[in-house]
Amino acid sequence: MGNGAELSGADPRFRQNLAQMNRYWGDQLSTSGPQYAGVIVALLMLLMLVQTEGKGRWWLLGSGLLVLLQILVSNAAPFDLENVATVGGIKASIVAGLLLVAYLVAGLFLMRDGMVYALFSALLVTLLLSWGRNLMPLTDFFLEYVPGYNKFRAVTIILVVVELAAPVLAILFLDRAQPATGGDWDKVMEKRSLIAMGALLVLLLAMALLPDGLFNFVNDQERSALMRQAEDSPKMEAQVIAFVDALKEVRIGIFTADVWRSFAFVLAASALVFLFGRKIIGKVVLIGGLGLLILLDQWTVDKRYMHNGKERGRYVHWVDNAVHQQPYTPDAADKAILEAEWSPAAGSDHQAAMTRLKERKQNAGGINKLVKPEEELLERFSSLRRNSDYRVLTLGNPFNDTRVSYFHRSLGGYHGAKLKRYQEVIEFHLGPAIQRVTSMLQSGTSLPEMDSLLAQEGVLNMLNTRYLIYNPERPPIRNSNAYGAAWFVDEVRWVKNADEEILALSEIDPATTALVDERYRTVLGSTTVVPDPSASVELTQYETNELTYLVRSNNGGLVIFSEIWYGPDWHATVDGQPVDHVRANYILRGLPVPAGEHTVVFKVSSEPFNTSRPVAMASSALVLLVVIGALVWQARTALRAE
């Protein structure tokens, strides 16, 4: 909540804790702010909808019934023995989907205004879908029957459609209210508009005067946590109740302040629309006045999230340019790895990188011409990454942490879109391995004991985890058991499916045994897999989209590469000749390499991307030409009319 004015009247005992609480009290697990189109946009959209003629008005009103039915289906759908929600013996998702489809089909016959039908349908459907688990049968219908819908990361992303449809409907009202389009107010149009404006004002007034009668202002999770605290410490029960009351009071203050603000904006916008309808003001005053009100409405909300406020002399919501350029600085553990892994190849690369950096800075002014020590250090880490093959794992929070990836190749990092197989390896193997290492560290251990534990962690070793950071201010644990960038295996163990493969991963020694799915038998063919102590594999060149290895062996065999398998886009060559590679050990790459010395290259080449790129460029050019043509045609038409 911060330290806003609403906290000034709160109980002094709770102010510090209240300031850390969320203003939002709904059931959504996390939110970074509202999808706010603006209360004036909502008013103008409502005015557009109430002008609908004939049966279309009943169709629009029917949207309320549709929402109610969707809620009833969601609440009344019990799960059967197969864990499928049903309503009257029919799958709940089917019922929810049929209700929506029936409503949309009815609109095709009842709505005469195609533009309003399309915009309102898009707004309603996407609004319902944004409720996610709160309307699970409808969400399930789209997940099960609409291609591509399950690729969304979060259901609230779809609200961008609402944020587009609502303003377009609002603009459509203003466009059709012009006298040139027959938008003069008659008694019916004026009555409908006044009813709509009055209804919205009454609703806002009720929310402002009776907030605690309409909303609870404390969500179930917060209430449960506070009640558990009271149960665990009976003496704190009175204080917990007082805290809940203070929390509700502050949230009500924030809520009512926003409602009164919205009330004022709606009242002002309604007055402008009414005066324009009565021809007391003109189009310029209407558009200018509404534009100013919308700007003020959006500006005051946006300033809550992007503003130039300061705390302790620093901007709250702005990042200094120096921090933006280098968000992390290396700590003791990073520097220890840099020193241990530095090589002549990295040194040569670093000299070339520094030369390029100095050339780029020649055009800068003043002190910016000089290479700062932190810039030079960052270039050293970049050169090391390009000329080494180790990986680093932090034991803190590796899969929601981007810091390690800034300096080293990491087992962790963060991305909103997860690779499914790697995420499963994290859950099945890496997570438990991290817990075992952490437990041993917490209980106190010697380096030989830790080395013995790490020797048994096959998944960590096959991912070439050479360093484990447990304390950023101390040197990391060096894992001498890591297998390196690639290695020959002594045997292949065939598995029938993914379940068998991921479970068997904890049973084998990946240094000598490779797990391969039965589907790849034809690729491996008659590949000979026998022990060869003299065999070696060296990563000679590393780029994010191309990896080059030098492979030497007397007998040949199957090489496992410590890189994530991604078959559709990564392609392999041996001495320049394309070859097929297989998925091994659930997530890694396997490639049969013949005896002798060979150069193996993995390179990214996405055929769908290469095909779609020229099509996308041609389509963009076509759209641009159509727009230019339409503008030229409109200009010529205007000139002829004159």
Keywords:
alpha+beta, four-stranded antiparallel beta sheet, 18 strands, 53% helix
Write the layout of secondary structure elements.
Layout: H1 15-19, H2 39-50, H3 55-75, E1 86-87, E2 90-91, H4 92-110, H5 114-129, H6 136-145, H7 159-176, H8 187-209, H9 211-214, H10 220-232, H11 237-277, H12 283-302, E3 310-311, E4 314-315, H13 321-325, H14 332-341, H15 344-361, H16 373-386, E5 391-394, H17 403-407, H18 420-443, H19 447-455, H20 458-462, E6 465-469, E7 477-478, E8 486-488, E9 491-495, H21 498-504, E10 513-517, H22 521-524, E11 536-543, E12 546-553, E13 557-564, E14 570-574, E15 577-579, E16 582-584, E17 588-593, E18 596-604, H23 607-641
Parallel strand pairs: 5-6, 9-10
Antiparallel strand pairs: 1-2, 3-4, 6-7, 8-13, 11-12, 12-18, 13-17, 14-15, 14-18, 16-17
Helix pairs in contact: 2-7, 2-8, 3-4, 4-5, 4-6, 5-7, 8-11, 10-11, 11-12, 15-16
